[in-house]
Amino acid sequence: MYVTLKLALVSTVVLMVLAAPISYFLAYTRFPGKSFIEALIYLPMALPPTVIGFYLIILMGPKGWIGSLWEKFTGGSLLFTFLGIAIASVIYSIPFAVQPMKAAFAKIDRRLLENAYILGLSKRATFLRVIIPNSFGGIAAAAILVFLHSIGAFGVLLMVGGSIPGETKVASIAIYEAVEMMNYRTAGLIALSFIPISYAFLLLINKLSDGPRA
């Protein structure tokens, strides 16, 4: 569970930083081929986890361009490491960060942005002082979805990281291995720990979605 929660936290923090400018760009920019870019970002949502895992193994392995560069500069491998599964988790969960953020940004009244520009705010200042505060619900929902998606990841993490205790063995893999060994008590206890965590976060998402009531 420690590795699982650590991975979910790292994935969430990284994706909140990466997804915010991507979502802003998609929400407020029009350009040829935009739909193709969006489809590419959302592709991990549609692909089987094993397909994503396979291509990550190719890219991050010793013969892949990412893996070979990493090995050249560090002398180690990305596969079967916590960093490797963190990268896999970020790629696997990126649609769950971008989609709600983009929707939240798109709902903002354009007149607020126009007024900010008239008052002399730069696009960066407008993003930080107008867009972010007025999109808190969507950003929080994105963070929660990424966190939940990360703690439930299985196939892509098993392929990229294997099952190294204390390093890459997350709770979903531990459940699978416990069931394989017919150790249902251990599997049940780990599985049971997911329920209150997931339920609490889903309640929070519903509260954020409802918004303030008059």
How does this model look, in words?
- The chain has one domain: Orthogonal Bundle (MetI-like fold).
- The chain has 214 residues and is an all-alpha fold.
- The chain is globular, with a radius of gyration of 20 Å.
- It is 77% helix and 0% strand.
- The protein has eleven helices and no strands.
Number of domains: 1
CATH topology: MetI-like fold
The helix fraction, in percent, is: over 70%
Q: What structural class is derived from the secondary structure elements? A: mainly alpha
Overall shape: it is: globular
- Report the top-level CATH class: Mainly Alpha
**Oligomeric organization of the protein chains:** single chain
Low-confidence stretches at least 5 residues in length (pLDDT < 50)?
A: none
